[in-house]
């Protein structure tokens, strides 16, 4: 496979997958997603590899670099932050490669919403609290489908991980409350999860906007909201002695 989309993980360079690291080591051409990718990962490139920052490139320019490299028999890694399948804009790249009959592979990565759970030392799916995780963002310059408006999603009262929206936090809070979360619902904002300068801010829907403003955070942060952030939950049945399953008989 000459073109590989690789998930770089959330920030810590050790969180790239073993396969992703190997392919990065072998690449002749690396196209990375700007400042969102830890520059330490680029140090894994072999000597002589061509490295491009896609932040200043158009879709057509990115694919043109891939096409030229493939024609020359070179291996290409398209390095995306987190997992490429979540807000990675890879579909349009893959579609253009399909039109050009260029084969490719996708290597998953650790998404930032999972890194945030680790930073918070938090399980998203607590028994009798929430068994659903919603991944979304607030509508901005790019619209969202009508049935995916934040207030409608909030009506489920599930655990919600909100990408790309911290700069609109006041609007996020307004939508969440209008959708059914109470002002006392716990919420956390984590900036640059797993990076050395990671920041964690906690509060409620009533307090979080001011807390985040005071911290000067307005980008590269994930919002997590839901009652999973409380300390009250039922114990999992999985390890209960009276709960039998295919690997253990009930006692």
TrEMBL record:
Coiled coil: none annotated. One of its GO terms (molecular function) is precorrin-4 C11-methyltransferase activity. Pfam families: TP_methylase. GO terms for biological process: cobalamin biosynthetic process; methylation. It comes from the Bacteria. Belongs to the precorrin methyltransferase family. Pathway: Cofactor biosynthesis; adenosylcobalamin biosynthesis. This is Precorrin-4/cobalt-precorrin-4 C11-methyltransferase. Keywords: Cobalamin biosynthesis, Methyltransferase, S-adenosyl-L-methionine, Transferase. InterPro entries: 4pyrrol_Mease, 4pyrrol_Methylase_sf, 4pyrrole_Mease_sub1, 4pyrrole_Mease_sub2, Cbl_synth_CobM/CibF, Siro_Cobalamin_biosynth, Uropor_MeTrfase_CS. Residues 3-208 form the Tetrapyrrole methylase domain.
């Amino acid at each position: 496979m000459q073109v590989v989309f690789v998930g770089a993980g959330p920030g810590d360079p050790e969180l790239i997958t073993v396969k992703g690291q190997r392919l990065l080591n072998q690449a002749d051409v690396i196209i990375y997603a700007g400042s969102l990718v830890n520059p330490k990962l680029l140090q894994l490139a072999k000597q002589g590899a061509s490295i491009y920052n896609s932040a200043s490139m158009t879709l057509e320019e990115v694919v043109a670099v891939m096409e030229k490299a493939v024609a020359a028999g070179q291996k290409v890694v398209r390095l995306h932050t987190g997992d490429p399948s979540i807000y990675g804009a890879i579909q349009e790249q893959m579609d253009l490669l399909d039109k050009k009959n260029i084969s490719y592979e996708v290597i998953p990565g650790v998404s930032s919403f999972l890194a945030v759970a680790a930073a918070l030392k938090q399980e998203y799916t607590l028994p009798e609290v929430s068994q659903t995780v919603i991944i979304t963002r607030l509508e901005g310059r790019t619209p969202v489908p009508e049935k995916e408006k934040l207030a409608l999603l909030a009506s489920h009262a599930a655990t919600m991980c909100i990408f790309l929206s911290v700069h609109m936090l006041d609007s996020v809070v307004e939508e969440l409350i209008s959708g059914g979360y109470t002002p006392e619902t716990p919420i956390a904002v984590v900036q640059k999860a797993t990076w050395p300068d990671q920041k964690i801010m906690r509060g409620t829907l009533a307090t979080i906007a001011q807390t985040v403003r005071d911290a000067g955070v307005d980008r590269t942060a994930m919002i997590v909201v839901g009652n999973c952030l409380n300390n009250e939950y039922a114990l999992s049945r999985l390890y209960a002695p009276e709960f039998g399953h295919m690997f253990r008989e009930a006692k």
